[in-house]
Amino acid sequence: MARRKLVYEGKAKILYEGTEPGTLIQYFKDDATAFNAEKKAVIEGKGVLNNRLSEYFMVGLQAIGVPTHFIKRINMREQLIRQVEIIPLEVIVRNYAAGTMAKRLGMEEGTALPRPIVEFSYKDDSLGDPLVPEEYIAAFGWATQQEMDDIVSLALRVNDFMSGVMYGVGIKLIDFKIEVGRVWDNEYPRLILADEISPDSCRLWDIETGRKLDKDVFRRDLGDLADAYTEVAKRLGVLPTNVTHNPTKPTLIN
Ligand code: TYD
């Protein structure tokens, strides 16, 4: 294959120039990082699983009318996506207290919240993605007030979809992070879901046992991360055939 132009390399993914203008190829690496990349490892098969899982969620979201950047999966590790102007925010939706929220408010992890809560962190690793109020976002011009309202609506639709899909396979969606991008249709900006949705950016707990099936397994040394992601993929019926990690009884879903 001809050498492709690298556009951006992040912690878990690489972006290459796409096949047509306005597109990019998103490559899912096996690298896992936590605590702002202080903790690092290569988890064999993670990229393959996240490519499939993100495809599965994005396709489902599109089917219910949520606009996303996903165009098509190209191979085991790559997908073709629409190029967007990334809004520099990590948009977090929480259904149960966990992680930084539980710590900040002294709540027990797993406590149900009165309603889903959407919060914004400024996307800057060197600052540790600090939580920011809407006032900052508007003042610094990262997004307009209208865009923030649209982002909240989008995030809540993603939450309803993801909570339902996960509930259907016996998993509780504790919280998750999405990123949103701006695309231009003629002169009008429009927001679409970008980046990825995978167990790297969600908290997923087994409803029956409370077993963690997300990146906390890696953050907190709770076992084998690829096993946890494989379990999620298996339950959803999206396990690719040749993930070397757990090759028992694979099911191919095209
Ligand atoms: P949060 O509890 O704020 O942070 P941490 O994961 O450091 O405890 O995270 C809430 C959810 O959002 C959790 O599922 C992880 C996800 N998330 C990311 O994937 N990337 C990020 O940069 C941030 C801030 C959160």
Write a compact overview of the structure shown:
The chain is an alpha+beta fold. The chain is built from six helices and 14 strands. The protein folds into two domains: 6-84 and 223-252, Phosphorylase Kinase, domain 1; 85-206, ATP-grasp fold, B domain (D-amino Acid Aminotransferase, Chain A, domain 1).
Which stretches are poorly predicted, pLDDT < 50 over at least 5 residues?
A: none
Name given to the CATH homologous superfamily of the largest domain: ATP-grasp fold, B domain
Which radius of gyration do the C-alpha atoms yield? Answer: 18 Å
Q: What would you call the structural class?
A: alpha+beta
Number of domains: 2
Largest sheet: 7 strands, antiparallel
Question: Helical segment tally?
Answer: 6
- Principal-axis shape equals globular
**Helicity level:** 25-40%
* Multimeric status of the protein: single chain
Strand and helix map with partners:
Blueprint: E1 6-9, E2 13-17, E3 23-28, E4 31-34, E5 39-42, H1 46-63, E6 70-73, E7 78-82, E8 85-86, E9 89-96, H2 99-105, E10 112-122, E11 131-132, H3 134-139, H4 145-168, E12 171-185, E13 188-194, E14 202-206, H5 216-219, H6 225-236
Antiparallel strand pairs: 1-2, 2-3, 3-7, 4-5, 6-7, 8-12, 9-10, 9-12, 10-11, 12-13, 12-14
Helix pairs in contact: 1-6
Thymidine-5'-diphosphate is lined by residues 90, 92, 98-101, 121, 129, 175-177, 201-203.
